[in-house]
């Protein structure tokens, strides 16, 4: 009986890890991250990589514990959350496309890209939040809850490592490469933002 529960919890944890990894998509966030930190020093880039992962972890854990309660209390639907996240990401993408990203405009020390848009909504976006809430609701045993907690932490360790090692690319591609990465990242981020907004609108009007 204990073995069956252990296997069930282990399977649940692996499924949660794989699902969150795909949704959080650290490789997909890498171009945006590199564009945002291109004007920073090497140590600061590494620090921002782990800060971004930490912010995402805090957001995910907060919604895992209190997500449904918070959304119900504020009368905020998942569709509204997704639409707001899409609009925010669209704004950031326009700044990247026009060369006014957080790493190169104004005083870089006053702009913590690890909070927005990296930690949220790029990593800990509506999709990750909803998925986490659903996994929490389906974790019926203490073993499954423990496996889910380990999965969430493990995913964010992978995110931190991925972003940290990606900073090595900036020393290779130089300024012209950074500019190209920023434009590509802006385009990708704009596409993600539009998709989020479209899905939010579909959800509001119950469209297929």
Q: Which properties best describe this structure?
A:
0% strand; mainly alpha; 208 residues
* Helical residues, percent: over 70%
Shape: globular
Number of domains: 1
The Rg value, from CA coordinates, equals 18 Å
- Tally of separate helices: 8
User: Strand pairing plus helix content: what structural class?
Assistant: mainly alpha
**Uncertain residue ranges:** 101-108
Number of strands: 0
Largest sheet: none
Describe the structure.
With 208 residues, the chain is mainly α. The longest helix is centred in the C-terminal third of the chain and has 35 residues, at 170-204. Helix 3 (42-74) runs antiparallel to helix 7 and helix 4 runs antiparallel to helix 8 (170-204). The N and C termini lie far apart (43 Å). Helix content is 82%, strand content 0%. It has one domain. The protein is globular, with a radius of gyration of 18 Å.
